[in-house]
Amino acid sequence: MALRNLVLEGDPLLRKTSRPVEEITPRIIKLLDDMADTMYFEGRGIGIAAPQVGVLRRVFIVDVGDEHGLIEFINPEILEASGSQIDNEGCLSVPGKTCEVERPSHIKVKALDRNGNEFELEADDLLARCICHENDHLNGILFIDKSVDGKIYKTESSED
Ligand code: ZN
Fold first, then answer.
1. 117 C-alpha to center of ligand 1: Å?
2. How many CB atoms lie within 10 A of CB 1?
3. How many angstroms is it from 116 CA to the middle of ligand 1?
4. Residue 32 maps to a domain
5. Ligand 1 center to residue 93 CA distance, Å?
6. Distance from the CA of 39 to the center of ligand 1, in angstroms?
7. Which of the chain's ends, N or C, has fewer CB atoms near its CB within 10 Å?
8. Could you tell me if 68 and 77 are in contact, meaning their C-beta atoms sit under 8 angstroms apart?
9. Does 35 map to a domain?
10. What residues are annotated to the active site?
11. Whole-prediction pTM value?
12. Under 8 Å CB-to-CB from 48, ≥6 apart: which residues?
């Protein structure tokens, strides 16, 4: 396990569409482990997607600190989305910036776990927001593209 370097806003990698994982190899398992290390580093982040560590594969992880703990998603697909919520978002790849983003308040998502087993998950509120944010990364979309009022705010402490 190891920390990986974060890809930051401005790097064209963050704007690419990631490819599905065809086979869950030891490389993918290592990627998942390293992504968790990177996300938890100094307590930063409640989610991270593979493109944020420079790997253009459809993989992300989240841990919003609820009873689900760490959830790993391989080849995720959002099956249903309903309701609406508006709240502030940030991103490890966009340090020092925040804005208000509208997201569904409820989603149903399916994905593969690290053993290749398909699972479905229903998520609300922060977990739904986080999953949508990470899923956007797989399509080259950043939260700052979705500011509800078009404004991007600077946070007081930049992370790097
Ligand atoms: Zn992000």
1. 25
2. 9
3. 25
4. yes
5. 6
6. 11
7. C
8. no
9. yes
10. 134
11. 0.95
12. 35, 38, 39, 60, 61, 92, 134
Q: Buried b / exposed e across 32-58, counting CB within 10 Å, b at 16+? A: bebbbebbbeeeebbbbbbbbbebebb
| Full pLDDT tens readout for the chain, 160 residues | 699 999 999 999 999 999 999 999 999 999 999 999 999 997 778 999 999 999 999 999 999 999 999 999 999 999 999 999 999 999 999 999 999 999 999 999 999 999 999 999 999 999 999 999 999 999 999 999 999 999 999 987 544 4
Please indicate, yes or no, if residue 5 is contained in any of the structural domains: no
What's the number of domains the chain is made of? 1
CATH number at residue 30: 3.90.45.10
Distance CA 115, CA 84 (A): 33
Q: Is 86 a member of any domain?
A: yes
Helix (H) or strand (E) holding 38: helix 26-40
